[in-house]
């Protein structure tokens, strides 16, 4: 049956350090643990995923990859990918398996993260290199 599904505005932001497993937190910087997330659509094997993310000012992300393609849409602040500065209204498409990092601007950043289905993968640079050589 076809249907329309609505996200929940009352869903509060949660700090990553308040809910993520210790093994995942160990891969993140102190600033990344302060990131706040709010899930609008939790996704699934055949369901779209949408999360809103608030990163703290000047945060440097861990060098990592995800298994699935991602799209970021910047709502406020800046994300720096090397020399490229993405600000409100900019979107970024990252192909699954791409190793990347970014830095957040001095005012922090709020953005939407969209994937075609749920993807909880987080492949650090060390694990990525190991996977490439095997």
Explain this structure.
This protein is α+β, with helices and mostly antiparallel strands. It has a single domain (14-133), classed as Sandwich (Jelly Rolls), CATH 2.60.120.10. The chain has 4 helices and 9 strands; from the N terminus they run βαααββββββββα. The strands form 2 sheets. Strands 1, 2, 3, 5, 6, 7 and 8 form a 7-stranded antiparallel sheet that branches. It has a two-stranded antiparallel ribbon with strand order 4-9. Strand 2 (36-44) and strand 3 form a beta hairpin. The N and C termini lie far apart (44 Å). The model has no long low-confidence stretch (mean pLDDT 90).
Average the pLDDT over all residues and give the rounded result: 90
CATH superfamily: Jelly Rolls
So, CATH architecture? Sandwich
Helix content: 10-25%
Q: What is the class in the CATH system? A: Mainly Beta
Q: How many alpha or pi helices? A: 4
The CATH topology is given as Jelly Rolls
Domains (count): 1
Give the structure's gist in a few sentences.
With 134 residues, the protein is α+β, with helices and mostly antiparallel strands. 16% of the residues lie in helices and 43% in strands. It has a single domain (14-133), classed as Jelly Rolls, CATH 2.60.120.
Key descriptive features of the protein:
Jelly Rolls; 43% strand; alpha+beta; globular; seven-stranded antiparallel beta sheet; 134 residues
List the helices and strands and how they pair.
Blueprint: E1 14-15, H1 16-19, H2 22-25, H3 30-33, E2 36-44, E3 47-55, E4 64-65, E5 70-81, E6 84-87, E7 91-94, E8 103-115, E9 123-124, H4 125-133
């Amino acid at each position: 049956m076809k249907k329309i599904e609505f996200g929940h505005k009352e869903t509060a932001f949660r700090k990553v350090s308040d809910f993520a497993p210790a093994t995942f937190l160990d891969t993140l910087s102190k600033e990344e643990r302060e990131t706040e997330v709010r899930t609008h659509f939790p996704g699934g094997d055949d369901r779209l995923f949408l999360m809103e993310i608030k990163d703290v000012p000047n945060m440097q992300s861990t060098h990592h990859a995800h298994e699935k393609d991602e799209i970021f849409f910047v709502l406020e602040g800046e994300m720096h990918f090397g020399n490229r500065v993405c600000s409100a209204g900019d979107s970024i498409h990252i192909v699954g398996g791409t190793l990347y990092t970014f830095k957040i601007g001095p005012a922090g950043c709020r953005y939407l993260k969209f994937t075609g289905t749920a993807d909880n993968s987080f492949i650090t640079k060390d694990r990525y290199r190991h996977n490439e050589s095997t």
